Amino acid sequence: MSIALEERLAATLARLILDPAAPPARHIAVGAASPIPAAACWLVRLMGHPVRLSLLHKRSGNPFTEGTRELFDLTGQGRIDLFFLGGGQIDGQANLNLVGTGDWPGTGVRFPGSFGSAFMYFMTPRTILFREEHSPRVLVEKVDNISAPGVSPPGVFRRGTAQALVTGKCVFRFHPDRARFSLESLHPGDTVDSVRAATGFDFDAEADIPATPDPTEAELALLRGRVCDEMAETYPEFCKRVWGRTRAA
Amino acid sequence: MMLPSVDALAAMVPDGALVAMPPDNSLPSVALAKALIRKGARNLRLLGVPVSGFATDILIGAGCVAEVETSAVSLGEAGFAPRFSVALKEGRIKVRDATCPAIHTMLQASEKGVPFMPLRGIIGSDILANRPDWKVVPNPFAEDGSDPIVLLPAKQPDFALFHAVMADSEGNVWLGRRRECATIAHASKAALVTVERVVEGNFLEDERLASGAISATYVSATAIAERGARPAALLDEYGFDQAYVSDYARAAKTEEGFRAWLDREVFAGARKVAAE
């Protein structure tokens, strides 16, 4: 069985979660409609790393007893270490636009809205940005509207920024000191030139960019087995599409 | 107060009211939204707590809504909310974007009866730039530097609308751990709640039920609406009806499709009952 892009992305996100240079991830929250980040978190957990996962849209076993505000209260206190965010537009300074294109509040194409991004991006020690579509319409030079800014001026309380941006083509590392991305690794089939052509923002790239590593045999076995078991209830369509799993009755 | 029908509950909501509703994952009363459409409600100002879903989209499509304040409007897996998107584009509704914890915080200020509460984050976002009612002040307790922080005004909805599992003889309602509905009820002038059933007794006398109950202090009126959250899920009682929402999302892409859907799903049932 060849490696599916979803499996590669999940394993890549898992490596970023475990990055020893980043602040520790003891408690990770995963939002709605995020099957690949959820798979990455389960992979980390099932590899034996002690991490608490709060999956916000799990049908059974809602992690919160004080309503949906509990996630934000926990995050406000600094008790959520890592969150995932995406965006209809992401720019070269890691600004996120979840509102829409054109004038405020999205008079061009309206996206659903900012959700908790304007808070979570500030209050978690790190955020992994994930957007599978890697195109000039998503990765823009400057977002039309800022739901959540990539960096903040000195004096504004902020616990962290983006750690990295993972797309269907590559991994970018974010450098908050200069508010720029650098190319960290390329998925199979992509080159620096093909990434440049598909990216609306300028980014740094060293002479030799490594390939994004394949998932290991052990990671693939977990993803196709126990990770899929854990995800089947919340993401039945995803498990069916990627792993051909139909939900047991 | 137990009312005979969900339509009697809807009759309590005057045009122009500020109405707070939870989204699809958090016990919306879709039955009550449909009753508001049948009643011909107009100029409602909806507050999504903290985001908005199916019920908001059908109310907008039916012309009941003047304003939406929310952190997102979405049909989840079925994609963008079609009637919301069209109404925004055509300028028929005013949209006030927020971010989830800001909506919770504005309601919590109302719960406490204080005029505002602070919240971290948000600074540098265009959400803030478009919210003249939100203010940035220096943290008065900061030991050094100015430490700017956002202050949010208390928000008191006229009505909280949601669905619960059951009501008791005393008018308390029970909905388990979805405490955001309790926050809305506490913060609003009145809560109108649909329930699956009414049971004998008093939830507040039962230690195991009390923590998932909302006291009748906050609940102005209830009515039975079986499967009243549908197509949204109700805890462990019934699941999310993805096929129903996907069918709606397809139909509501066009005005004609939406009108046909409305006629079939909102008005036809009522006509059938009236004819019986």
Automatic annotation (TrEMBL), chain A:
Pfam families: CoA_trans. InterPro entries: CoA_trans_fam_I, NagB/RpiA_transferase-like. GO terms for molecular function: CoA-transferase activity. Gene3D superfamilies: Glutaconate Coenzyme A-transferase. PANTHER family: ACETATE COA-TRANSFERASE YDIF, CHOLESTEROL RING-CLEAVING HYDROLASE IPDB SUBUNIT. This is CoA synthetase.
